[in-house]
Amino acid sequence: MVSDTALTLGDHLDKVQRSKAKRLLHTWKDIFETDLLRIRQTDLIEHAIVLMPGAVPHRARISLYTEEETAFCHRLLPKTEQAGLIFRCDSEWAA
Question: What is the spatial distance between Cα 80 and Cα 25, in angstroms, rounded to a whole number?
């Protein structure tokens, strides 16, 4: 097991491969993070939706989701909001 994670390295790795794998996982630990509350914002990417002048909001029907999908969202969304990865919005664009 790699320290402080739930990842397990296979027994087939020799000592050098195991060391390289641990170094890789440590160096890029933010990519392999499994706890949403430990994921941090980045400034490496910017995202924006640029609207055309005069664009008018369009309300569409809410998509239907399975109970499993709904339960997943009920578990995931509060955690991502708490981690600061998403934010509540009350926009006429329903974003």
Answer: 23
